[in-house]
Amino acid sequence: MKRFLVALSTFLLFGCGESDQTRAQQVLPWAETKELVVLVQNGPTALYVNAAGDYAGLEYDLVTQFAQKNNLKVRFLVSSNYTEMLERLKRREAHLAVGGPRDENAGLIYGASYQNVNATLVFSSKTSESTALKALTEGLSTLSTLPQYVGALNKMKLKSPGLTWQVADNGDSESLIEQVSQGKLDFALVDSHAAEVAQNYYPNIATSSQIDSAQQLAWAMPDNDVQLQILIGGFFQQQMADGSMRRLLDRYYGHVNRVDQLDALAYLGRIQSTLPRFKNWFQEAENRTGLDWRLLAALSYQESHWNPEAVSPTGVRGIMMLTNETAERMNVDRTNPYESIIGGAKYIQLLKETLADRAPEPDRTWLALAAYNVGMGHLIDARTLAVRMKKDPNSWADVKSVLPLLRKPEYFSTLKYGYARGGEPVIFVESLQSYYDILARFQPPSKTVLPMPSDSVVVHNPENLQLEINSVLNPMAVEKLAAAW
User: Fold this and answer.
1) Per residue in 142-187, pLDDT tens?
2) Which is the catalytic residue, given 59, 93, 286, 303?
3) pTM (2 decimals)?
4) Would residue 174 show up in a list of annotated catalytic residues for this protein?
5) Cα–chain-centroid distance for residue 177?
6) I want to staple 108 with a disulfide (CB 3.0 to 4.6 A). Which of 91, 220, 290, 478 is the partner?
């Protein structure tokens, strides 16, 4: 009996301890603490550390804006597993889980839908779409899928009994795409927006949208938090009404289809073969101006493909394609690649300083680069036109929507600097953004820059996931991609 009582007391002790621990993990009501605890996955569509060393991502931006509007602090809990995030949310370990699809059967409530995504099949670019679909429907290969697309696959299986798949409960879109790129998986079914972002730096993959499964992204919260649901509904209503949501979507996805696969592969090859000759000079230009050397290198590639002898029909020349007037203004010899790089960097910095009191980053950089291409005068005209059309002249997304109008007489005749081929700077900047994204994936920054600590936003990363934008890929991957192609 004594031994039984000791055992019973031990059981009760450990049982109580586990219960206390469970209660300790539950968050207090956000309305009391004024802190919102948010579960989020790491990755380029949600939260990551960008090339400038700042936290970024569509979900990060949306959550921080929502918190600021409602005078709340934010504590992000970064996770690699969305299914686990939802389970933790049900256990009240957080107030929100963001970045996932609406699931009415999850036992949670959802805020307003803010982005539509579709299932995208990813496979090797050496395989045709018809061959890939045949291999799947006839059961010749197994598909790895995210959990949210199982319903669509069950419907497909009624017509194609040979279809088989395995659910990647612990995976995310980017990790599945990477495994296809490396030949570890034959096929993966992922979110369309993630596939679009990844295609530039995994140019040896191909995609298909033939598997029909539309999803709506929405923030999830415990089923008893109706007050938070109402606040989120009002927030997204305002985001849609004032154009903020459109501008954010453009920031992260507006340029993803600008560079095609062949161009991306050629670029990856020149990163390996040509860039090392000029890399130190781009880094010196960064030291002089504070501009990321990878941005400067991407600009130079966009302008001349890193060819110091490049000349355009309009007379601009050199590795940074400077006009004679700009070269004289910067006091450099534009035919000398070192001086051209330094001069081009100084000129971009000058253009940014012209916009410094108005446009926030990263819009200021993209506006300055548009001016680098089309001239500051025409950029001023475009911003004037944006104001007339009740758009934001400090937003690159809004300015690029009006730049093409500078070629139409009914618009340019009313502006100071007249006619311009306004579509060209849009293509120029969007292509440059893609080249910069690729280079930032494969080349580390010249120095490690950590996100600045904040009193209002904290990011906890208990799994020690790599959040930096260039963490998944490394310079050796360029050579492997070229070889795979």
Assistant:
1) 899 988 888 889 988 888 999 999 998 777 888 899 899 989 999 9
2) 303
3) 0.88
4) no
5) 15
6) 220
